[in-house]
Amino acid sequence: MPGRLTERVALVTGAASGIGWAIARAFAREGARVAVSDLDRPRTEQAAAQILADGGQALPVVMDVTREEEVEAATAQVIQAYGRLDILVSNAGIQIVSPLTELSFAQWRQVQAVHLDGAFLTTRAALRQMYRQGGGTILYMGSVHSKEASLLKAPYVAAKHGLLGLARVAAKEGAAHGVRANVICPGFVRTPLVDRQIPEQAKALGLSEEEVVRTVMLKETVDGQFTTLEDVAATAVFLASFESNALTGQSLIVSHGWHLQ
Ligand code: NAD
Fold first, then answer.
1. Domain ranges of the chain
2. Do 38 and 13 meet the contact criterion of CB atoms below 8 Å apart?
């Protein structure tokens, strides 16, 4: 049976770990040619090699999404290798946990740079190719924190809210060129990004790690469950393969019921 993304060309940032890696693998299983992109060469090459070993098509592409020239070069590399770019997943992200009063300006800017500068730079490079070829889809990795706030996460919450605005403009401007843009908003998923936060939050809030998981991270879910990598990857496949403009400029919460709306 043909996959839902057969021969589509996808670029996934932050794809050597966690959610990006799960999406890259799921796209490859659906028949896409996947440019697996991350910061450092060994992890990026290892991720692409794993997809190839599993019978998929993958190209390792090293880039720091905050650096304009690297984003331009990496996008050109994908287009040169595969001839087009159908799907961008702007996923690379970091987290810094700190009360506002303790946060340095450099930390604030670092979080904005990875999430917002990275999303802008990859969007601009992708859109130029998508306009040339007459269509494409952009998925941004938002968060439930695109919709609500938590203690200690000011730069992250601000950046994730900002992605909604960028996606909506990309949806409006892209429509005339066949480009759709949507945001996936996961709840907590057990990745290195979250695993690092549990002891940090326990310390900052004076709780045990088990209490952080139960009373902070999963408190508002309907079932006390973490969102899984598979939950998020399945949502990305669904949005990437959705065929009409009915779904554009939207944000979809994938969170086991945290933040119902
Ligand atoms: P992760 O730490 O497992 O993976 C993030 C990847 O991004 C890493 O491989 C890292 O090297 C890469 N990265 C960081 N800075 C980069 C840069 N400047 N350029 C290129 N790559 C860079 O984290 P994750 O949990 O898989 O997070 C992926 C995305 O999902 C992030 O945008 C995060 O905010 C979002 N998200 C995560 C959760 C969660 O609970 N894990 C929930 C909602 C949203």
1. 9-187+228-254
2. yes
